[in-house]
Each structure stands twice: as structure tokens, then as C-alpha cells.
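Input.
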Amino acid sequence: MKSAILGLLSFGSVVLASPASGDAGKTLDLAGVSAVVISGEASSVRLTTSASAPYQATIGSSREARWYSSWFANDCSLASDVKLEASTLRIVVAPSSWLDPSDCRVEINANIQPESSVSIDQAALKASMAGNFSTIAISSKAADVSLDGHASTVELKGDALKANLAFGSVRQDENIAITGKALDATLSFGKGAAISYSVTATASFVDSTLASTAGAKPSVVIKGDFVRATIR
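Output.
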């Protein structure tokens, strides 16, 4: 996976590509789409559910380096397989060829209808989601995942995983499960929210301003070898 995992493990870092290194990619109409399924190699994913913006997806790429020979100026996203199957958008991110520079990163941006489902299974991933979703299921060896909005079900799995989940509302139907080896999770539900949570780990540091109330929802279950969890 070349340097993709290293880049994604540098949580919080920002990649600035030169104008010549950005690829506009292709745009798809997502009217009627209510599920997104992404698999394959590393990518950067941004998903929104804004009813005031067109429902569409753009798939492109960016590079870190400042210049490239014209031999290597191809769009590394073009090899990815993209399909619309009924109400589902399926994207399979292909591995880069031996001719591709190691810093080529596929970028997926999509605005889908509210309460859509998201399923991602990739080797390495940076995912940013804003809006209201039904379910979010993500599995990755190295991932940086953020949510600003709501989802009734969130299931995150990864060896090295950073998660920042900020719920804008609580409907008392939320089930959240985060599992992995090295986890850094920050969850916020709002002051005074009634939640239940459990953390099982070999070594852990848990900082919560909310008490755990048996049977309450949101329900949060965190399991890992090394865990740092912040709950607000």
C-alpha cells in the first residue's frame, strides 16, 4: 500500500497538492441512491447528506509532491471500478500500478440523501461524514474516521483507528461499537445525555463526563488492546 497507510496514520495532517497534481476526476448523478459501498485500496472519503445540494459523487485524486514528469501525470483514480446498482453506489478502489508514484491518493466526495447507509472496507482510509445516516459500517487496518451529525448504528473496526463521533442529536436508538488494537476514540452526545457505555481493553484511559446508565441509549461498546476514549 506504499505510503498510503503512513499518510493516513498521520492523523490531523493536511496534504497540499500543487495545481498540476490535482485530478478533477469524474462526476456521477446519485439521484435515488440510498447506500454507498466502498472497498479496495486506500482512499480519502467525504460524505454529506445535504438536501439543499445536488446528490452526486466526484471521484478524483491528488498527490503530495510539487512536480511530476508527464510520464507520471495520470489520474490514479481512473482504474477504480464505479457502479450504480439500483439504489446502491459501489466503488472498488484499485491498487496503483508500479508506474504510479507512491503518494497518489484517490479522493471520493459524495452528497447522498439523508438516512442513507455507508459501508466501507479498505486497507487504509480517511473518512469524513457530515449529516444524518442510517448505518455506518467501516473496517480498515488504518483509519481516521469522523462523523458530525447522526447515525442510528455505527460499527468501526481497525488495527490502528482514530474516531471522532459528534452527534448533533440523540434519538435514543443509537448503537455504537468500536473494535480494534490501538484505538483513540472521542464521542460527544451533548451535555446531560443519558448513555450506556463499556470499555474492555488490555490498557485503557477513559475520560467521561457522562455517567453510564444501564440500558440507556446511545449504547457505546469499545473493545481493544490499547484504548484511549473521551466521552462527552
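The two ends are 35 Å apart (CA to CA).
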